[in-house]
Amino acid sequence: MTILAARAIRKSYGGREVVAGIDLELARGECYGLLGPNGAGKTTTLRMLLGLTVPDSGEITLLDHPVPKAAREGRIRVGVVPQVDNLDPDFTVRENLLVYGRYFGLTQAEVLERLPRLLEFAALESRADAKIQELSGGMKRRLVLARALVNDPELLFLDEPTTGLDPQARHQMWEKLRLLLRQGKTILLTTHFMDEAERLCDRLKIIDHGRTLAEGPPHALIAEHIEPEVVEVYGEGAGAWVDTHGRALCDRAELHGETAFCYLRDAAPAVESLRGLDDLRFMHRRANLEDLFLKLTGREMRE
Predict the structure, then answer these.
(1) Tens of pLDDT, residues 237-258
(2) Are residues 121 and 231 in the same domain?
């Protein structure tokens, strides 16, 4: 069953088209990733899907409601985790949840009934009366996620939910998201962490300059676009190795600074040629989503 759909949505600002005819469809119960470099059009797309920005053209349906015409009715059944923690610093953990519940028309009694489950989900039972400035970064992100669940939403919009978290906190957040998926929630996720998207997403879309570059299950996309094995070569002599050996041994080779990326179907010959070269270090690994992302969007810095 489709829970969110967009058809040919477009948006321009100042004569520049930032979203150029994107299609998108989420099935109930899946985790869907929207990936792209800075400036690719992700935020504008999310805002249009939520009815916060009016598209220039195209059609959007959010939980059976046309957007933006009936966006408010659709958003009542949606939870949102923004990039930046926008918790109220004047309130305690408990008060942040209570106040947010009122935005959805819930009575204080209804929010109080849900409060123990939300605090348990966020692992903040012992910090219910703590002020926001007393929480760690990981605690704040878990609280923002728990706050997004106050209205028991069917669909969650997660905009870079683990940015700024240390590895332990990121893994803890991933477990919370997997739990929500097991409970039947649907998730639309944006992230710059490719391993996060590869671990969590059933399907994903990679966009750049407002256009779709690829869409599908992560591992299927990797298999379709990238050679299965990668050898990374590090050191001042990486470029010379590419010129003397890499071009012949690699199906595809890229040199960036002092690092060479060698993409292959059979890595054994390349690995053998690198053994015993004291001036070079190398790593042999399987191709991953980051390789796909960089191939499609390039390695240039985006501001």
Answers:
(1) 999 998 988 889 999 999 888 8
(2) no
